[in-house]
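Subject: sequence -> structure tokens, single chain

Hey, anyone have a minute? Need the predicted structure for the following. Not urgent.
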Amino acid sequence: MFDMTIRTDSYENMLEDVAQYHMWAPMRRMAVGGMHHIFELWDYMERFNCDMVAMYDQLQCKGMQGVHGLFEDEFRDRNIPAFWIPHALPDSRTVSRAEIRRLINDYMTTVMHEEPLDPSLLELDDDMTW
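Reply:
Had a minute. Here:
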């Protein structure tokens, strides 16, 4: 993908290649996946018999922020328990790993009524993480 040549012989070709590059970019492909992402989630849920969804909330991704409400509506319409995990790939200081774990643990205990298999793992020292 990163060795893609962007044609500059015409304005139209350049726009087409830049659009293709953007569509293939790792963040775009993994986080939003173009037009298929929303529909693939429901297919995966049915195929794997999921009873809940943990959704990533990439704070710097405008594409994902744009479809956040669509997911919320579908989760509600399909009666699917779901929660959002905020994170920032480029900067782990925005949302700490401890905060992410706390959100997941809170959801699992309050909504799903589950207890941790090993409560000693609820609090971890993140001082040495990058």
